[in-house]
């Protein structure tokens, strides 16, 4: 994954961890009590692993979780599309090479016809 | 994701939450007791996160869950295919541009041949 | 998903449920005690949801689980590739139409050149 | 999946299992106490199933888990892209056949023009 995407993913994890810690920290029944716990929970959520050792119990915490879960689905999509894009670019190179060869053939043929016309015109002048 | 797909996904979540709440609410051993809990459970299920803090215990609830899980797999497929489609469309634009250039070359060649014929016919008239 | 793939997926779920029930049923600490529980567990595993309300504790049960988990990864791949394939086929139709148009142009041009030669040959006969 | 990728995936699982066992084994509150447990946990993590029956509680163990979770996302991407690549290669074969046919048409046209020139040159010699 390019550096700027890793950076964006890290930023989402960081912000979500802070937000869930703010919403859940110290609440009764909550088990996300430190930034380390919050980051660990965010990582298990965004990768859709979801051990369930920690999870939010407040409305705000669940809303943050919803954002992370959807980001996780998007993450899978982006990673897979990046692989696929790399494959498609290789296919495209082959196709582009074939297209370029075809266009070179057509250009050579156009030059052939142009010369033919010049020959014919020279012949008419001589007539 | 386009608006109508987000709407469809929201509708599936809403209907599944109501259905699971109807099946599970108040049953012994069940931990899905409110619409908020049901919606939270539906979201953890459709994104395949599956914390396991809440899960259905009745046959009907499990059937609703099965539908949500399969919707989740489809969701990942659709999101990934949407990214891939966007990439493929960019590739197609490049290919289409190459095709258009090739056809323009062929049209230029056809014009060249047409002129050749006019030259030749002029030559025959003079004969 | 085509019917034969749904059938194959159902068969894998059915066989895995029977195998895990045989391995786990009645063991101490095991919580997969009926076919319904086994099928429910198999579904949460193959879709990678993994609530953790039920999980195998024996070596054989874990081996069955490993097979189901890898089938789940394959399932996501097949569903996504099916969507992508449908998109790629639409792209292919556009590309094929462009290719066909190009070939028609080239055939028309070849006919034009052939007529030109016949005209020239007729002209030489008259000379 | 090709053999060398299965081998790489097995190696990652093996190394991660050893690393998490070293970090977690014997710690208070840890439930990963044998290599079998560690391997089982690694498998539930890399496939993003995440039952939560076992999970790391130390910083080092969580860091190993983070690596496995990201490997899991990459695994889904690679498996899906492998299916997609297989589909794309079939599309490419059709496109390549069309390209080859187009180039054959152009070669036939070039031969036609070459013959036209020979006819014309023969006509000029006779003049």
Q: Any overview of this molecule?
A:
The structure is a homotetramer of 127-residue chains. With 127 residues, chain A is mainly α. Helices cover 80% and strands 0% of the residues of chain A. Chain A contains three helices and no strands. Chain A has helices at 3-24, 35-46, 59-126. In chain A, helix 1 (3-24) packs across helix 2 (35-46) and helix 1 (3-24) runs antiparallel to helix 3 (59-126). Chain A is rod-shaped. Chain A starts with a helix and ends with a helix. Chains in contact: A-B, A-C, A-D, B-C, B-D, C-D. The A-B interface holds A 45, 48-52, 55, 59, 62, 65-66, 69-70, 72-74, 76-78, 80-81, 84-85, 88-89, 92, 95-96, 99, 102-103, 106-107, 109-110, 113-114, 116-117, 120-121, 123-124, 127 and B 36, 40, 43-44, 47-53, 75-76, 79-80, 82-84, 86-88, 91, 94-95, 98-99, 101-102, 105-106, 108-109, 112-113, 115-116, 119-120, 122-123, 126-127.
